[in-house]
Design brief:
Blueprint: E1 5-9, H1 14-24, E2 28-29, E3 31-35, E4 41-45, E5 53-57, H2 64-80, E6 85-90, H3 109-120, E7 124-128, E8 143-146, H4 149-156, E9 164-168, H5 171-174, H6 178-184, E10 188-195, E11 202-208, E12 215-223, H7 227-238, E13 243-251, H8 257-263, E14 268-272, H9 280-283, E15 287-290, H10 293-305
Parallel strand pairs: 1-2, 1-5, 5-6, 6-7, 7-8, 9-10, 9-12, 12-13, 13-14, 14-15
Antiparallel strand pairs: 3-4, 10-11
Bound molecules: ribose-5-phosphate (R5P).
Length: about 325
């Protein structure tokens, strides 16, 4: 029998952890993170966690490397504090795009992250929208992967979708679009894009499907430099689209992404709050943020109770 449910947060996205706690009427357990002048870090748990069922919330955002180390130290501290079970709740998984050896002599960093967190003490993982579903196989323990599709579709269903078409921003995303097309009962198109080497430069080359006179809804798992999405939006407009909006799960929004979005043909960018946005919201009027904290709260409660989590995914396919 597991002990009490306790929620702790690393320093990456405390606001998100508090929102989860509010939904569950649970108090966030406190930790202390100290940064020493030699760049070492110390993490201390300020609550008794003996025999407790622990959920550690941490996302990947700058400073990315510090947050990775803080996660490892927190997991290790929990293990040495006799927690009964430790679930790492990582809404945006670090290095998630590095999921294959697609160039000679490179690391598969997402697999390395999975191994590090398990070695540090995680017994289970609760994640959201991995870049590829096969990443679940990088773990030797149970992984529950939440999807944002219902959060997005519930928002989109409030619009008049009669002349809409769903568009995959790249071929890799196309296989996930069936879920959106089924729920919204919309046709689909696919953009074939090429990335130039290891740079942020992407070029949309072909369009599979007809978007003439349509309102396009681009879907992607993340927006980082903004290159993919902004080029895709402009490309759709050049191909006769009436308007372009996008639903993207993880708002990484690195580098000059906000400037690119403001200057692009995108009419609206709908994202979730898996990553803190800081002042980006005030710098970009095209952003709409939907909270996935209630979904995480439900999943955490179900994991603690030993109930099925897959009921949260809605209809499959
Ligand atoms: C790539 O395969 C992903 O699905 C996204 O399209 C990509 O990560 C977006 O990156 P960026 O915004 O830098 O073009």
């Amino acid at each position: 029998m597991l002990g009490a449910l306790k929620i702790l947060s690393g320093s990456s996205h405390v606001e998100f952890a508090k929102e989860i706690c509010d939904h569950m009427a649970v108090e966030l357990s406190e930790i202390e993170t100290v940064h020493f002048s030699n760049q070492n870090m110390l993490v201390r748990i300020l609550d008794n966690v003996r025999e407790a069922d622990i959920f550690v919330i941490q996302t990947s955002c700058p400073p990315v490397s510090d947050h990775i180390i803080e996660t490892c130290l927190l997991l290790d501290a929990l293990r040495h504090s006799s927690a009964a079970r430790i679930t790492a709740v990582l809404p945006y998984f670090p290095y998630v795009r590095s999921d294959k050896k697609d160039q000679p002599r490179i690391s598969i960093a997402a697999k390395l992250m999975a191994s590090m967190f398990q070695t540090a003490g995680a017994d289970k993982f609760l994640l959201m929208e991995l870049h590829s579903h096969q990443i679940q196989g990088f773990f030797n323990v149970a992984v529950d992967q939440l999807l944002a599709v219902d959060v997005f579709c519930n928002y989109l269903k409030k619009k008049d979708l009669s002349n809409y078409i769903i568009v995959a921003a790249d071929v890799g995303e196309a296989k996930h679009l069936g879920r959106y097309a089924n729920r919204l009962n919309l046709p689909m198109a696919i953009i074939d894009k090429r990335r130039i080497g290891n740079t942020d430069t992407v070029v949309p080359t072909h369009l599979i499907g007809d978007v003439t006179g349509k309102h396009c809804l681009l879907i992607d798992d993340e927006i980082a430099s903004g290159g993919t999405l902004c080029k895709a939006a402009d490309f759709l407009k050049e191909n006769g689209a009436e308007s372009v909006r996008a639903a993207v799960v993880h708002p990484v929004l690195s580098g000059t992404a906000i400037d690119k979005i403001n200057a692009s043909s995108l009419d609206e960018l709908i994202v979730t709050n898996t990553i803190p946005l800081g002042n980006k919201l005030s710098l970009c009027k095209k952003l709409t943020v939907l909270s996935v904290a209630p979904l995480f709260a439900k999943a955490i409660q179900r994991i603690h109770n030993g109930d099925s989590v897959s009921v949260l995914f809605g209809p499959s396919g």
